[in-house]
Amino acid sequence: MKNSVVFDIGATKTRIAFTENLEKFEEPLVYFTPASYDEGIQTMVAAVKKVANGRKIHQIAGGMTRNIAGWVYEKLTRDLNENLQIPAYLENDSAIVGLGEAVFGAGRGYEIVAYVTVSTGVGGAKIINGKIDENAYGFEPGKQIIDISENKTLEDLISGRALSKKTGKHPKEITDPAVWDEHARLLAVGLNNIIVEWSPNCVVLGGSMITGDPAIPIDKTEAYLKDILKIFGVIPVIKKAELQDFGGLWGAMAYLKGK
Q1: What's the number of domains the chain is made of?
Q2: Shortest CA distance to 114 belongs to which of 253, 22, 225?
Q3: Which is it for strands 4-9 and 13-19: parallel, antiparallel or unpaired?
Q4: pTM recorded for the entire structure
Q5: pLDDT grade for 66, boundaries at 50, 70 and 90
């Protein structure tokens, strides 16, 4: 088995870990993601060497958010390859986390998994048989238009950023059950659209607006979805994400297992 390094680059924090067998990873190294790309690549290369601790690395893979100015997928992939002299693979962070949940987390055992994350924004991906489904431009379930009168997307209506903009408060400060109930209803509308298009066996919901406290209640989301989605007779299994902060590392391992 090849020694590998897996990573997850978020807008706030970066997580990096070493794995010998692609079944589990060692204690991750976690640090704040530098705003500057030049500083970021230097910090990351040093972190990779630190977690390897003198052991030879054969490959590296991970996910990166699109929300860091100056950080470009193609450039990061090329720079990792050149600096480490090993194959480097990079995917969208939501897709990588979704892959982790499908293979190692809440969606394991299901053939087709729809992963949806609701946090600052709304993202996700379709996973089939332990692999990110083929696509031309990526997956953006949060960009589906829900309110056609004003062209508002699902992300515009239920993301943490949208809620903060509407209320002037951080979502953690909002305890009114009616607010979270309305978010459950809107999420159910979005899930209806995702389900009729992707036809998954299982939908895994993640992100701080789902796993935090307070959060969008999954039971109410499922109840609303049962009222909306009638065409199939049944709805897919709806589950909460299980891998917490390290879903991207699990997903990167799953990605390399499929190479």
Answers
A1: 2
A2: 225
A3: antiparallel
A4: 0.95
A5: confident
